[in-house]
Amino acid sequence: MSPLIETKKLTHIYSEGTPFEHVAVRDVDFSAARGEFIGIIGHTGSGKSTFVQHLNGILKPTSGSVLLEGEDVNGSAAVTRRVRGRVGLVFQYPEYQLFEETVRADIAYGPKNMKLGKEEIEQRVLEAADFVGLEASLLDHSPFDLSGGQKRRAAIAGVIAMRPDVLVLDEPTAGLDPRGREEIIRNICRYHDAVGGTVLYITHSMEDIARFATRLVVFNRGQIALDGAPEEVFRHVEELERIGLTVPSVTKVFSILRSRGLEVAEGIYTVDAAVEALLRLKGGGGNA
Amino acid sequence: MLKDITLGQFFPGTTVVHRLDPRTKLILTVLYIVLLFIAVSWASYGVVFLFLVCSICLSRIRLKAILSGLKPLVILILITGLLNLFYTRGEHLLFRVWKISVYWEGVRTAVLMALRIMLLITGTLLLTYTTSPIQLTDGLEKLLNPLKKLRVPVHELSMMMSIALRFIPTLIEETDKIMNAQKARGAEFDTGNIFQKAKAMLPLLVPLFISAFRRADELATAMESRCYHGGEGRTKLKVLRMERRDWIALTVGVLLLVLVILLRRLGL
Amino acid sequence: MKIIRTEKLTFRYDAEDKGEPILKSLDLEIEEGTFVAVLGHNGSGKSTLAKHMNGILLPSGGKVWIDGMDTAEEDRLLDIRRTVGMVFQNPDNQIVANVVEDDVAFGPENMGVPSPEIRIRVDEALKDVGMYEYRTHAPHLLSGGQKQRVAIAGIVAMRPRCIVLDEPTAMLDPSGRRDVLETVHRLNREHGITVLLITHHMDECIGADRLIVMSDGQIIADGTPREVFPRVEMLRGSGLDVPATVGLMFELRKAGFDLPLDALSVEECAEALYRVFA
Question: How far apart are the C-alpha atoms of A229 and A273, rounded to whole Å?
Fold first, then answer.
């Protein structure tokens, strides 16, 4: 399948030519096909946030290029404007971008900027609110009266309402409690399944994302260190720890078991897979 | 990135000028401004200029930094110069074109006025280049302390000023983030006429204000938790102390003042 | 010695409000020198509880005593606040000065500590949190975890007997979170400072002496982490989760294996599994 979005030798240098000069992203070749759900992992300063801000032309590459279906997103101002609607970017703590008088108007801001018709906008607002699990009755409230979790979801809806082909989310669950995290991830999965677009989900927490992602991309020092299916990436426990990432505790437990001679599969990262692997070891049921 | 901008234009250093007590520097700056206004002759200007050059040399501030500080004010200096040139009347007519006559006295005043403004700016630049904003507020608070008796909230004002300085970089960074977030939703901040532009700022300004209020609220709680209860009974980590160098610098300042007054009296 | 004691602590924001209070008649005693984690979902009342510990909020009903002082007595407020220090979620919004050491000095300055003594306290506090080398830096150029450690140093310099941390790691990345937790544990271990850590991250509670679980303004579980985490269904029912190690044991027990639910650390969990599956 031809890639939906790709970067070619993408490099970004902050404050080039000043004492603050800092290479954030270096020669990154990346491509994603339609329908992929990609977890982008890396610690702070690994370049992952800088990288994704190139995908919709918010940041311009120092060198290299970003292509959406083969077209350079920085080709012209008109192209960049069009790309903003096709590559939706949800920043960290997106609730800080809310500004309208009602939730409805805030979600409509993106589609309005895309100069869509009134009915189309209304339909998209309802659809987006539904995707993030916001009740229709909340749409006429002020976004500032919502709870923390609801604000977060309203802000995500504001990007989803543009119906982007590529949805990029930067730490969308930061600061939420386990239930709030779970809800957001489920909503995003639902959106992904329904629309069939590509999702790029940036996070520090591999445990969170590994259950849902079809592919993991690990950033380190401005470059891609690992790229593959989750079970593939989690085989590299030592490398992940050397980069400074926290490996899921189930994976750690299994790497200890393997080192002590138990024949369990490598790259196990979820509780369910762990249970299955152990049961297989015992040949089915327990001893109770 | 926006947050790399040097704020308050402070260049850290360890020279004598940097180490002077901020109060000394504030007093000297005021003294210097007074000098400039009572200086009328070339000789007295020479004295002031020499003082400035010596201070700059001691501070090791590069000429380039001073020139770049003067740059935004070139137009102001030019206008002042030209106004003085055309509007000063005197006895020695140089030339007359149409209705405009230029006198020799006009040229003199124009040059002196332009010089005066340039010297004025350079002097204050030197103060901010060598004194951190926090030192400046500390110094101001101490100097204005007597005003407390007149119920002027000196401590509160200086606390507000230093908190404002502390939060400028944070708010700039935040502006940057919100701007990008709204751009990602198709906002355009730099197109259209002035009304469209103003309207386009709303999605930036509303979140920025809300966030600033939230920060202020949280900061107030945090400050109270750290036993803040106004300036009463407050001590300081860094106590401002006048050293020998401060007294020397102040003496030099006063001597210059006397010198310039003498020059004026003598009509030189 | 009980450093914190609450009796029938009830709180509602609006006195007229007849609805459900945010805190419902809480009785709580904290022993001096212990490390206590308070776990709860968003809106469980845990942050509201924290704000009662130094008189930022005052009870609508009931009492809070800090080292025997009633928080409702206004003239004891400064004494209470120098006994219980408070660290908040957003590190940016609690740093007052634009030089690290000036910020750490802020608390002692307010307390009227003599200048030479402030210098000593600031240096010691910065060393305690591992930020001494950054003492002349500007806070806005530090990472989140570093800023939060500066905020902790600002409290430590006040020499409190108890530190309450209200979700101090919620906005941090894993390495910042690790640094902050290690710092807090060290302060508890080496200086005997009582720690009340408010959080919704299960993993952060594993090392605590005592774990209190809150839901809807009430305490629904109170004990050592080993006693509390095995109650998987209760925790999940109140919108929380359990550490993955406990979750794994829980699932395997359902399948009929005899495994302990209190093997919290990765090593203990692996050991228990090895014994059963080898």
Answer: 15
Closest among A51, A54, A46, A50 to A221, alpha carbons compared: A46
Q: Do A36 and A133 fall within a single domain?
A: yes
Average pLDDT rounded to a whole number, residues C262-271: 90
Predicted confidence at residue A282, as pLDDT, reads 79
Among positive and negative, which fits the CA dihedral B82, B83, B88, B94?
A: positive
What are the backbone angles phi and psi of residue A139, rounded to the nearest 5°? -65, -30
Q: Are residues C145 and C270 in the same domain?
A: no
Give the integer Cα–Cα distance in Å for B149 and B102. Answer: 53
Task: Tell me, yes or no, whether A238 lies in a domain.
Answer: no
Q: What is the mean pLDDT of residues B163-179?
A: 90
CA B239 to chain centroid:
24
* Same domain for A161 and A49: yes
Please tell me whether residues C142 and C252 are part of one structural domain: no
C-alpha triplet A138, A144, A149: angle, nearest 5°: 70
Asked if C36 and C151 sit in the same domain, the reply is yes
pLDDT at C100 over 90: yes
* Complex ipTM more than 0.90, yes or no: yes
Element at B141 (helix H, strand E):
helix B133-144
Same domain, A205 and A258: no
Other C-beta atoms closer than 10 Å to the C-beta of B30 total: 12
CB C200 to CB A207 under 8 A? no
Q: Is the pLDDT of residue C38 over 70?
A: yes
Count chain B–chain C contacts defined by CB atoms under 8 A: 99
- The predicted model gives A206-217 an average pLDDT of 87
Q: Are B44 and B268 in contact (CB under 8 A)?
A: yes
Q: Which of B3, B226, B235, B239 to mutate to test the interface with C (most CBs of C within 10 A)?
A: B226
Closest C-chain CA to B6: C138
What sign has the CA pseudo-torsion B31, B32, B34, B40?
positive
Mean pLDDT of B87-100: 77
The DSSP bridge pattern shows strands C194-199 and C162-166 to be parallel
Residue B1 has pLDDT above 60, yes or no: no
Q: Of B1, B183, B211, which has the smallest distance from its Cβ to A96's Cβ?
A: B211
| Confidence category of residue A286, pLDDT binned at 50, 70, 90 | very low
**pLDDT of residue C201 exceeding 90:** no
Q: What is the pLDDT of residue A87?
A: 95
Helix B104-130 to helix B74-87 angle (10° resolution) is 160
Residue in the block written with tokens 């302390």:
B145
Q: At residue B5, does pLDDT exceed 60?
A: no
Domain count, chain A: 2
β-pairing verdict for A22-32 and A5-14: antiparallel
Average pLDDT score, chain C: 93
Residue A152 in this model has a pLDDT that exceeds 90: yes
The pTM (predicted TM-score) of the whole model is 0.88
Range of the structural domain that residue C24 is part of: 2-242
Residues in Cβ contact with C209 at an 8 Å cutoff, skipping those fewer than 6 apart = C34, C35, C36, C224
CATH code where residue C205 lies = 3.40.50.300
For chain C positions 97-136, those within 8 Å of chain B (CB to CB) are 97-99, 101-102, 105-115, 118-119, 122
Separation between Cα atoms, residue A28 and residue A5, nearest integer Å: 13
Lowest mean pLDDT among B134-138, B203-207, C92-96: B134-138
Per-residue 3-state assignment (H helix, E strand, C coil) for B27-84: HHHHHHHHHHHHCCCHHHHHHHHHHHHHHHHHHCCCHHHHHHHHHHHHHHHHHHHHHH
Higher pLDDT, C13 or A53: A53
How confident is residue C42, by pLDDT bands cut at 50, 70 and 90?
Answer: confident
For A137, the domain range is 5-230
C94 contacts on B by Cβ (under 8 Å): 218-219, 222
Q: Per-residue b/e over A42-76, b at no fewer than 16 CB within 10 Å?
A: bbbbbbbbbbbbbbbbbbebeebebbbeeebbbee
